Amino acid sequence: MKHLNEEELVELYYESRDAQADEQGSNLHMNHVLAEKHMQQCEACATAYDGLARVLASAEGEPVPERGAEYGAQVWQAIRSSLPVYEPKRRHIWAMWPRWAYAMAGILLLAGTFYAGKIWERTHTTTVAQNARQGRERVVLFVLDGHLDRSERLLVQLSHAADDPGAKSETVSLPLQSEARQLLADNRLYRQSVAQAKDPLLAGALDHLERVLVEVANSPDDLSTADVEQMEKELNTDGLLFEIRVLRARVADQAKERSGAIDRGRTTL
Amino acid sequence: MRNMGNADQELIRRVLAGEKDAYGLLVSAHSEAVFRVAYRITENEADADEVVQETFLRGYRALDRFDSRANFKTWIYRIGVNCALDARKARQKAGAVAIAEEFEEEQVAVQLADREAGPERILLDREIEGRRRKAMERMTESERTAFVLRHMEGSSMEEIAAVLGVEPNTAKQAVFRAVQKLRRSLAPLWVKA
Questions:
Q1: Residues B110 and B166 grouped into a single domain
Q2: Structural domain span for residue B105
Q3: How far off is chain B from A104, nearest CA to CA, in Å?
Q4: Domains of chain A in sequence order
Q5: Residue A4, CB half-sphere, CA atoms under 13 Å: how many?
Q6: What is the superkingdom listed in this entry's lineage (chain A) (predicted)?
Q7: Is the pLDDT score of B81 beyond 60?
Q8: Which ipTM value was assigned to this complex?
Q9: What is the pLDDT of residues A237-268, one digit of tens each?
Q10: Domain check: are B132 and B85 in the same one?
């Protein structure tokens, strides 16, 4: 049988006192019930408990002097004059706002943030789309400029062949035929694209170029300088050369413009 | 208890709103309990009265820092205990602690029957009171406070822990140590019949 130690006896003593004060004894712990049961069977623990209870019962000390019913009022009167009055804390203007106002402000803030995000997203998307379109146009202009450059060189060579004073009656070799054939295929594509872009100047020039390229590509191998000169006059290649140079200058300006627009778009992102 | 707590909270709110006299109601409700604890600690009636006034003065000045979730009774008890301990220390410093007599631990146990009346009983009571006071002197502040609240005021361990600002188990240990000191001092007076 395990005996109760001193700490358990002290606890038992005060719990018994609490239980006496509380008539229903509802505060009794299960350990307390078990300890009491143990003491009924264990003489040693019962003797130890009695000794402790006797010592503690004698240690109540002198009774506390009674204080009358007016004691509280007397204490209050004694200290009242030395107490300052608390000043009611001023409530800040925002503290006086009802809670729903805060909730409404929160909702408005949330909605504002949402719409700002939408606008930003739309602007961002538009800029990207614009940049993509401008990028594509820039590539087209770059390729077109290459095509016009090659065409210009072909026309210059054709012009030189016709202008050779020592070869008026002689047969001229035209190595430009194969070049003309390649240019012809490209030119057809550009002409069809430009027709949709509603650019009459470029469309007219490419149409004119195509007729020249057809003639050059299909010209016989033993073409004389006179024949070349005749072809130049009929097809007005000098005029075409001028048109191409004008177009090339314009295309270069447009390409530069598109490039600047893309850079500005990137800066705004 | 809950209604009492709510009533205290309402009075505190009124005081902080500028109604000074509402504090008078709090003083009336708790001054006697504070006096009892103060008297048990100081063991001097005049000191205990002063402690009560000092306690409610300090309480008023600190009222705007009172946590509204706390129990006012426990809070004012805590201030009261601190004031009482200060008063006791001040009296000890002044060398004016009223101890009935000096007692030697090694003194041979006075073997007296505990239920006998007359001069012997009076002598025994004086002996007991002197030894009890001596034992209280040897207790630490927390032991003395815990013992006074548990043994003399019947406070629960939770209340004592709140007043001391410790865990209930620590408060329980403080009570146990106090009882041990008391028992060592008083046990020699009792003999088996």
A1: yes
A2: 101-193
A3: 30
A4: 6-56 (no CATH), 133-268 (1.20.120)
A5: 29
A6: Bacteria
A7: yes
A8: 0.80
A9: 888 888 888 888 887 887 777 677 666 655 55
A10: no
